[in-house]
Design a protein that fits this description.
single chain, about 130 residues, mainly beta
Length: about 130
């Protein structure tokens, strides 16, 4: 199972969090169905890095290759991303989120910008394990 966390904007104009996974049952051979992508790029942030309140610039998947970081929404929802986790960033409007690196590793990641009509095989978990406060 590939862990995926979705950031999205609610009717209250705040970012919210859903934890789940990428559905690997839809495709053949325990793989997901293909997801359309507009562009792919890579970025690295040195250990100790942080980024204050912002929204996602576009709807995108962010795949963490190295580094452990903590995300927070203005409403106090928090979650941690680790190598191998996928972030589905859909909070392109509203109050946004912030993040900070938690360990001594750089955050290396791949950004996959999604076309507007791209369907992502994201499945929400039944329980909501993210934190408040």
């Amino acid at each position: 199972m590939i862990r995926c966390v979705r950031l999205w904007t609610g009717e209250d104009r705040n970012s919210h969090v859903d934890e789940g996974h990428i559905d690997l049952e839809l495709g053949r051979g325990a793989g997901s169905l293909p997801v359309a992508a507009a562009t792919v790029s890579f970025r690295e942030t040195e250990p100790g890095g942080a980024y204050d309140w912002h929204t996602a610039p576009v709807r995108q998947l962010v795949m963490t290759l190295s580094g452990t970081l903590r995300f927070e929404t203005r409403g106090g929802e928090t979650f941690v991303l680790r190598p191998g986790d996928v972030l589905l960033a859909e909070d392109t409007t509203g109050s946004g989120h912030r993040w900070s690196l938690m360990d001594d590793q750089p955050w290396r990641r791949a950004y996959v910008v999604l076309p507007p009509d791209a369907e992502v095989p994201f499945v929400v978990s039944q329980c909501r394990p993210f934190g408040k406060g």
